[in-house]
Amino acid sequence: MYADQTYWGRPVPGFGDPRARLLVLGLAPAAHGGNRTGRIFTGDRSGDWLYGALWKAGFANQPTSVSRDDGLELRDAYVTAAVRCAPPDNKPTIQERDTCQPYLVREVALLPDLRVVVALGAYAWAASLRVLTPRPRPSPRFGHAAEATIASVTLLGCYHPSQQNTFTGKLTEPMIDAVFARARELINLQE
Q: Minimal CA–CA distance to 73: which of 90, 89, 60?
């Protein structure tokens, strides 16, 4: 339906501080958010929730993200997605997952100070477990506010700030704020 739009189907890179100790991992760029604006979690309601929570926890200089040139800067945080292009119905195929995984592996490798990963949803949790080493056995289960330690990194689960979750109350602002407050606490404990 939107194939005639200039932004449709373009991959979206990660965004943030290259010295970040916090990695926020989502599923994929939103078709009319990050895919349209060229910056992950930018220009959509999920981004409003995410960047608001990052700002409250001191990881962002402002609570909003509307365009690539809006002045947003992340401090000690990097945001990316497991899949680089908006998949139909937010359901990436195994081929899409496997094609995009090397990009995520490289991004994680480029974050030498990484200490905490916040996985936004079960898909991002599973993607985190595929790229963090050593891979724990048995695999820790996803849940909101779930925690797992993998070597020197703590993996935190958070329900995705999608409209489906926020409109139904599955995820509330205090819930997402608590996850990022915990991420800040874990980082501060390691200083």
A: 60
